[in-house]
Structure formats: C-alpha cells, structure tokens
Design brief:
Shape: globular
Domain N-acetyltransferase: 6-149
Number of helices: 3
InterPro entries: Acyl_CoA_acyltransferase, GNAT_dom, GNPNAT1-like
Organism: Salisediminibacterium halotolerans
Protein name: ElaA protein
Number of strands: 8
GO molecular function: glucosamine 6-phosphate N-acetyltransferase activity
Strand content: 25-35%
Strand order of the largest sheet: 1-2-3-4
Number of domains: 1
CATH class: Alpha Beta
Order of helices and strands: EHEEEHEHEEE
CATH topology: Aminopeptidase
Length: 149
C-alpha cells in the first residue's frame, strides 16, 4: 500500500476519477443516499488516500479553515468495505490530523461525523460538540479534535 497526499491541481484525471468513484461507492451506493457528491470544495482540499493495486482503499479530504467550519476540517472519510476494522481508518485519521496541524498549525480540527461512526472518531481523539442532526437523512454530530499541549 502506498499513501498519497495531493492538492487538487496535483491529482491526475485518473486519480480524481478513482477518488470520486470510491466516494460514490461508499456514500451514495452503499449508504443508499442520494446527495451532491461534488460540492465545489474539492479544489480547495488536500486529498489523502492509499491505494492497493490501483484501487483506493482509504481516503479523506482535508479542508482549510473557513470552508466547512471556522477551523480546518476532515471529511469524506472512507475505508473500502473489505479493509474496515483492520486499523486502516485509524492510520488514515492520524495522517490526516498530522497534515492538518502541519499545514495550518491547527489547534482544533472539526468533522461532521455520522453518528454510527462516533465511537471510531472518539478513538481518534474527537469529542462531540453538537446535538444529533440529520444530514441527507443520516444522523450526524459535529465533533472536534483539540491538539494536545
């Protein structure tokens, strides 16, 4: 497995296609959720992913401060179904947090977490900061990670 960290303009057409295909496979098809996957935030994002035999197996999108929240944020976090519960998601989040701290000297990082994944994010150091709300008919909670002193 090889990790990649790229800004939008560094992605090849093939890489972008594979990223979007992976996101649609998880968030639209697997979760049976119809929503606009392309939201005009990808161009500002840092994209982190790992691939195995040219297939994206884990991915996250890191947004700068002011795009989704006042603080930088991590979103579109996914791990391919066959790779879940292997520790790959925790490695992905650790790398995404490191990038966020290095890029913007972030004291805090926000996420919009699906409630069913709350315990996973808590294990990565995030704490809930909102009530549950529906986003595209899926329960979500806002969570924050605070950089240790």
């Amino acid at each position: 497995m090889e990790w990649h960290v790229k800004r939008f303009e560094e992605l090849t057409a093939k890489e972008l296609y594979r990223i979007l295909a992976a996101r649609v496979a998880v968030f639209v098809v697997e979760q049976n959720c119809s929503y606009h996957e392309t939201d005009n935030k990808d161009e500002a994002a840092i994209h982190i992913y790992v691939k195995d035999n040219e297939q994206i197996t884990a991915y996250a999108r890191i947004l700068p401060p002011g795009y989704a929240y006042e603080a930088p944020s991590i979103g579109r976090v996914l791990v391919e179904k066959e790779q879940r519960r292997t520790g790959l998601g925790a490695v992905l989040m650790k790398k995404a947090l490191e990038i966020t701290v290095n890029e913007w000297d972030a004291e805090k990082v926000m996420i919009q977490a699906q409630t069913q994944a709350k315990s996973f994010y808590e294990g990565c150091g995030f704490e809930t900061v909102s009530e549950m709300y529906l986003e595209d008919n899926i329960p979500h909670e806002d969570m924050v990670w605070t950089r240790p002193l």
